[in-house]
Amino acid sequence: SSLTPEELLSECVDFCRAAGAEKIYATGHPILQKYPLYTVIIGMRGMVEYVGETECALFPVTQKTWPEFCKIYNEKMASVPTANTLQLMDREKYEKGAYFVHKEGLLQGIGMVSDNRVFAVAACQKGAGRKVLAALCKALSGEEILLDVAENNLPAMTLYARCGFIKTEEKSRWYKVL
Fold first, then answer.
1. Which of 101, 110, 139, 149 is 20 to 30 Å from 60 at the Cα level?
2. How far apart are CA 8 and CA 62, in angstroms?
3. pTM for the whole thing?
């Protein structure tokens, strides 16, 4: 494209407004620094042994349960800065590492993992975040855990700090464009 970054951003904002967007956030280019900083995505590292044990059980998401998983995920992640929205069409991309976490028949939460990375933790019961994280650790390969978290997602930052996670890097900065 022969457009400058400023012109491309303006076109993007115009398109998003026309599509009904009420808020627009962007990352990845120095021109964004003139906008208010919304959040910083932090890479964190932890160890399974520090998360602790749990009696919760993991139930893999299936094609039949994917719509319910999406519904819960989208409700729980609606207030999380920079969280993606899951769509029914995303099933093949995410289903393999997606889990419901139960204890004695009661849904404690949901989450998504792959290899040694946690992609999402959402508690469905007050105070169940650590139990959900501990259960998800059962599906990880290895003792080290990697994850990314928005710095202004205070509940998640608090949970991970209590579980011994440390900040390892700044992954990206998100700016509020609209």
1. 149
2. 40
3. 0.86
